[in-house]
Design a protein that fits this description.
Blueprint: E1 2-5, H1 12-20, E2 32-36, H2 52-64, E3 76-82, H3 92-106, E4 119-125, E5 128-134, H4 148-163, H5 181-189, H6 196-208, H7 214-223, E6 227-232, E7 238-244, E8 258-259, H8 260-263, H9 269-276, H10 283-291, H11 297-318, H12 321-341, H13 344-360, H14 373-385, H15 392-418, H16 422-455, H17 459-472, H18 477-482, H19 486-498, H20 503-512, H21 522-533, H22 557-565
């Protein structure tokens, strides 16, 4: 259940006209009262004899009874209460009881206080109500509304438990503003996948991912097809910006613009500037770097991003809070860049992962931005390397990067959980699930090729790799050898030995780098860790199985004596 305290107003009748009216986009259906401060409150929605003015006069009566000098300038209080998507529809009686509990919890009309404020709850949709109150009590005093928003959230948690609704986490004020019901209904009528506010937020986040400076950021916004307005001071300094979708217009036919701060707290221009830091460059530099592409650039960029993500994991695990928060925030840029440049069969899940992680990237822990340079550079390289193909080295290194990002999402969930950031932890966990699905799509072809190579190994060679596993990770050996990915790991160990590495040592180090409990397949994870650490090709579908060095036979005592004599 999602309660939201709106800005206070000065015209009771104006809010009544909106609540009982058709809505901005004809989305209000059957507006009517479900509860009020008294049983005789008129209902303009169901009583043809009642008018908005009748209800307004009764609501405002305590306000009007005060001398003008004592009347509050903003005397209209407004709270909306919405059930979460997927929750069952509630009856008018249930909504009425919820309204009474909310006005009691927030201090508008405490239980058993006959001198509380006058209020009315209007329902004009299945999933929410609006509560309107006037902020003068019957005894002429003002209500105690300190922390009314927080108290409404606490009451919502109790209501969720009692009504069997989805249990939501109380926010900490760092979440992006949710689309209004009008915006959601408009998106449905226009057959949009998401409301305009969310589409804009996603596009702006992609534009800022890895951007080196303001010029490059605004160039990307313009090239994405958005309408962009800049707010400039008389001195010529840039103060802010607003963006709009070209086809999202109001009744007058004008584009509906949103400022960056209305899209998300970290998308205001001052907060975006924090990402650029001292290394801010012009957009021309970014475009120049972008032209230096090579056919292998997407795979190279993904390998570099995998390494940067691994280093970020270490910071999240061991660094201070400011450094960890910076890594988590910059990981959002990597996800945005990867979703933008991924192949079609992984794009949707990666886009959903980036969309979910957006909530995990912000908290009240202030990010120390100098710690995020490697990840921001990785995001930049992903953007300028261009779209990756779904197969070959591009596709295989995509799977390698997704695998590492999965562990970063799990680490972020743990980090937020330890600091009681419930919403951020849930968002990071949701991100991990999307990445798990994306990995399955990306890894199918390269892991299939590795498994085929592993099955082609001669039995003595395959047994030798099993012995390596038992030596390096004895506690996991039974599980790994029984997994479907075992043959891919055996082929990778053979490749590593052929490249001059010590397989047992390499495998032991790879297993110790990060926990494997959250992975569906430990062997898959170890394959990517080994191939990255040993600098092996990620895709081997077009390569023959590398021959293993032939072990030198043990020498007899006579042979050893002859060798010493020489």
């Amino acid at each position: 259940m999602i309660p939201r305290v709106h800005r206070r107003g000065s015209r009771t009748v104006g809010l009544l006209y909106y609540l009982y009216g058709p809505g901005t986009y004809e989305e209000h259906i059957d507006p009517h009262l479900v509860a009020a401060w008294g049983s005789l409150a008129p209902d303009p929605g169901r009583d043809p004899q009642a008018t908005y003015a009748d209800l307004q006069k009764l609501l405002d009566q305590p306000v009007e009874a005060l001398p003008k000098s004592r009347r509050p300038a903003k005397h209209v209080w407004h709270l909306s209460v919405r059930v979460a998507p997927g929750d069952p529809a509630l009856s008018d009686e249930q909504w009425g009881e919820i309204a009474r509990r909310m006005v009691a919890a927030t201090g508008i009309a405490p239980t058993d206080d006959e001198a509380g404020c006058r209020w009315a709850a209007v329902r004009h949709a299945d999933d929410h109500i609006h509560i309107l109150a006037t902020l003068v009590r019957e005894d002429g005093r003002r209500p105690r509304l300190h922390n009314d928003a927080r108290r409404s959230q606490a009451e919502a948690r109790l209501i969720e438990a009692e009504y069997g609704l989805k249990r939501l986490s109380t926010g900490d004020g760092t979440a992006a503003q949710r689309p209004t019901s009008a915006e959601r209904h408009k998106a449905e009528r226009q057959c949009r996948e998401r409301p305009a506010r969310e589409e804009l937020r996603e596009t702006v986040r992609r534009a800022v991912a890895g951007a080196a400076g303001e010029t490059e950021f605004f160039d990307r916004l313009a090239s994405s097809g958005l309408l962009v307005r800049r707010r400039v001071a008389p001195s010529g300094d840039l103060l802010g910006y607003t963006v709009a979708l070209p086809d999202n217009r109001n009744r007058e036919g004008d584009p509906v613009f949103y400022s960056g701060s209305k899209l998300a707290p970290d998308l205001s221009l001052p907060r975006i500037r924090e990402r650029f830091g001292e290394a801010q460059q012009s957009g021309a530099v970014g475009r120049k770097q972008g032209r230096k592409r090579s056919p292998g650039a997407p795979a190279v960029a993904r390998r570099a991003a995998t390494q940067a993500t691994w280093q970020a994991l270490l910071v999240i695990d061991r660094g201070d809070d400011g450094a960890a928060a910076a890594q988590i925030a910059a990981a959002g840029e990597v996800l945005d860049a990867l979703a933008k440049t991924s192949a079609a069969h992984t794009r949707r899940e990666l886009r959903e992962a980036a969309f979910a992680f957006e909530r995990a990237s912000r908290s009240h822990v202030r990010a120390v931005r100098r710690h995020d340079r490697a990840l921001r550079q990785a995001a930049r390289d992903l953007v300028y390397s261009g779209p990756a193909l779904g197969r070959g080295e591009d596709g295989a290194t995509t799977a390698m990067l997704i695998d590492m990002l999965f562990f970063l999402a799990v680490a972020a969930a743990s980090w937020h959980g330890k600091r009681h950031h419930a919403q951020q932890a849930a968002a990071a966990q949701q991100t991990a699930e999307h990445l798990r699905t994306a990995y399955q799509s990306a890894a199918g072809q390269p892991m299939g090729a590795l498994r085929r190579r592993g099955r082609q190994l001669a039995q003595p060679l395959l047994q030798r790799q099993a012995d390596v596993v038992r030596q390096a990770v004895p506690e996991l050996a039974g599980q790994i050898v029984a997994e479907r990915g075992w043959f891919a790991l055996a082929a990778t160990l053979a490749d590593a030995e052929a490249a001059g590495h010590q397989p047992a040592r390499l495998l032991s180090e790879a297993a110790a780098r990060r926990e494997l409990d959250s992975a569906e397949s430990a062997s898959d994870v170890l394959v990517w860790r080994l191939r990255r650490a040993a600098d092996l090709p990620a895709d081997v579908s077009a390569q023959p199985t590398a021959p293993l060095p032939t072990p030198r036979p043990a020498q007899t005592g006579r042979q050893q004596a002859r060798r010493r004599a020489r």
